[in-house]
Amino acid sequence: MSNYAVATTVVTSQHNVSTTVNGQENMNSSLPNCVDSLVNNIQEQNVQQSIANSEPHLEMEFESEASAYDFYNAYSKTIGFGIRREYGNKSRVDGVLTSRRFTCFKEGIRSVDKRCHSTAEPRAETRTGCQARMAISLDRKIGKYKVVDFIAKHNHPLQPPEHVHMIRSHRRISEAQASQIVLGDESGLTPKDLHEYISKQAGGIETVGFTREDLKNYLKTKRKQSLKYGEVGALMMYFKQESENPSFFYDFQMDVDELITNIFWADAQMINDYGYFGDVITFDTTYKTNKDCRPLGVFVGLNNHRQTVIFGAALLYDETIPSFQWLFETFLKAMGGAKPKTMLTDQDPAMARALSIVMPETFHGL
Which long-range contacts (CB under 8 A, 24 or more apart) does 67-75 make? Predict the structure, then answer.
């Protein structure tokens, strides 16, 4: 059975159960998408009706920056373009956002590519220096944002209705689609299979409303949240209990969204063993801890009786050079800066590169 056939079988069987009452089928495999599509169409019609005769204008008021963005984005969709958040200013006194500019997605000009053009294929130019924009400013007297600048004219052709939904600011993963993505991912389906399956239900890739890259980013965010609220919660409770011992060590790394990505820990016995047997160690990440296949890295050695001893463990978000570099630096911090003479690893090039940066004097064996 092909991967696509598996996608159809698994997602349909888990998310869309057909039942029959009095000989009539109550639910078919496309009902969630049909309902979701109907709701989206109604909402879209309401939005279009509300702004059909309402172009942004000076002194227009909004309760928040987000509501101003939503309005301008909805307006841009009916016209045929997308938008971006440009600059924003915050008060140094209370940190409140005082102004924001929203621009056309074709605003600006790409900077000159200084790379050698014989080795790099330049991407097609997508920006035209379009000046269409809407700017808002906070009126503290009334506690609302007002439009202080608006330019409607564009210097490029606008997108037709059948294409505008694929511009970045208009791409959306609906709740029904999100449920199918999660179920399919938990069943082991690839992002490619999931995107093909949902696209077929929606009537084609051109109508699905999001790209395969959007799907990958959605799954990445969900996995980070899972780590934050699931495994991390249990680990942090464990760390809190163990930290009563001053020799217990743990550290973690966070991304720009303040979600925990990588974690390392070593108890007193591990640190003590490393002091005696840490000349030659092995680092292995071949064990995957859960359905997300998140790598569990373990630093291992042998004692005088040729028994395996563990020097530390790490739960990683991915196997990239930055993750490994952070891990090796944290490992050395836990061990008081003492570097092993030899480290044996697998043939992962990212791991090898990180090791050469953090421990250049250590012999790296494969």
Answer: 68/100, 68/102, 68/134, 68/136, 68/145, 68/147, 69/100, 69/102, 72/102, 72/134, 73/169, 73/170, 74/47, 74/48, 75/51
- Residue 176 burial by Cβ neighbours in a 10 Å radius (0-12, 13-18, 19+): buried
Half-sphere exposure of 303 toward its Cβ, with a 13 Å CA cutoff?
10
Q: Give the contacts of 225 (CB within 8 A, at least 6 positions apart).
A: 259
Question: How are beta strands 280-288 and 342-344 bridged, if at all?
Answer: parallel
Mention every residue, 6+ apart, whose C-beta is less than 8 A from residue 271: 247, 249, 311, 334, 335
* Residue 17 main-chain phi, psi, to 5 deg: -90, 125
- For 137, the enclosing helix (H) or strand (E) is strand 133-139
Which DSSP helix (H) or strand (E) runs through 9? helix 3-15
* Residue 153: partners with Cβ closer than 8 Å, 6 or more residues away: 131, 132
- Of 247, 254, 251, 292, nearest to 269 by C-alpha is 247
C-alpha radius of gyration, the chain, whole number: 27
Per residue of the chain (366 residues), what is the pLDDT tens digit? 444 343 443 333 344 433 333 444 343 444 445 445 555 555 555 555 554 457 899 999 999 999 999 999 999 998 999 999 988 999 988 889 999 999 999 998 876 655 555 545 666 677 889 999 999 999 999 999 999 999 999 999 998 888 888 888 888 887 778 777 877 777 677 888 888 888 877 777 777 788 888 888 888 777 666 655 555 666 667 777 677 778 889 888 887 666 778 889 998 889 999 999 999 999 987 665 444 556 788 899 999 988 888 899 888 888 889 999 999 999 999 999 999 999 998 878 899 999 999 999 999 987
* 159 DSSP β-pair partners: none
Alpha-carbon distance 308 to 302, whole Å? 5
Question: What gap in Å lies between CA 265 and CA 334, rounded to an integer?
Answer: 8
CA–CA separation, 254 and 235 (whole Å): 15
Q: Indicate the pTM of the whole model.
A: 0.47
DSSP for 15-27, please give it. H----EETTEE--
